[in-house]
Amino acid sequence: MKKGITALVIVIVLSVSAFASNSDLLEKWMYSNYYAKRIMIETGPKTRIRREEVYKWGPDKFVKVYEPVKVNWVRVGQLCYMGEDVLRRSPMLILDLEDLAFKEILQKSPYSVKKTEEGTLVEIRGSGVYRVLLDQNGFPKEIERYYMDTKSRMIYEEVRPLTSSKEEVLKGYTLEESEIKIPPELLTLLSNFRFIIVREGVSGLEIEGVFKNGQKVEIFVGTNLSKEGFKITVNGIDIVVVSDRDTLNEIKLILQK
Amino acid sequence: MDEFDRLLDGEKSLEEVSDDVRRSYQLYRKILEMYKVRCEYTPSERLKEKILRRYKRKSAVLTGVLLGVFASVIFVFVLFDTLSLPSYRKEKLAQVQNPVVSDVIYFIKTVELISDGW
Questions:
Q1: Strands A111-115 and A86-89
Q2: ipTM for the complex?
Q3: Of A141, A157, A178, at which residue does a domain stop?
Q4: Verdict on whether the full-model pTM lies above 0.95
Q5: Do B107 and A90 touch (CB under 8 A)?
Q6: CA of B111 vs chain A CAs: smallest distance (Å)
Q7: Hey, are the CB atoms on B117 and A100 less than 8 Å from each other?
Q8: Residue A4 lies inside a defined structural domain of this protein
Q9: Residue A3: inside a domain, yes or no?
Q10: Are A38 and A162 within one domain?
Q11: Which of A243, A249, B104, B117 might form a disulfide with A217, Cβ 3.0–4.6 angstroms?
């Protein structure tokens, strides 16, 4: 009997310590300060490749994107800025694959942590499956996401602890508070998409994507649009949404809130 | 022919050669004189001007025609580009001039490229 109790205690202690060390590593990752070069490759209905440098200070982040466009973005608290040398306030948060993985963990999506030869593998099952490979310092080595037939893979290189402060790194840039004006209705719509493909079409901007209910939705943004669909006009900008009747009803409800 | 050459070389005088050779020699001298006259001919300034004027007039006409064709092509191009624009191009141009729409297009296109989700 005594042996049984001792074994149970040992199992509990080991489980608790393993959980604690796993949580420690996740916490280390979330609050880590690092600099890295990274490449994001996405394959699926659309293919994207991005090459960038990232400076991370806990939840704050500065990313210098080199490919496919040369642009910088910074997130400080809940504020995001985007631009080249002068970074304008972004009307919505900019999140990369790492931020989305954090979001899943914070939203209590189930996850598992496993030690491997290459590092610690964190698997998160939320909206999509995330696999994050971390080193012993809690720095990411690779982040993968499988989502709606799309595989996104972020490969980190030259990851090193970041000692420079935000002020030092951002001293050559101007953060401008004048916000890029985007119709709030459009932002609300976009935030309900699972993913989007954007192209500049003949009548302005054409956004095609999968809505949160899994249905295909097209949004046309421009002036004097003659497209048929659910049309709203905000500050002289026409937004026409084209989808099936149920999805359009759902969209109308979302916009009424 | 041999006799003619000797006459030209001065080995024989005109009296010493046959009548045929003498006639050929006179013809030869006449041709030489004609050729000399032809070589020494210089056209008068008036003729020169007349010829040059004709040439200049021709090139001016050609230049005028070419300029006319070029201007017509430009005119037709501008006419089609501004008056006969397809409606979708008109819309696009209108949007390019609308800074709010340009901002929206720039923002959404860039965010789509640099972010991985919402």
A1: unpaired
A2: 0.75
A3: A178
A4: no
A5: yes
A6: 7
A7: yes
A8: no
A9: no
A10: yes
A11: A243
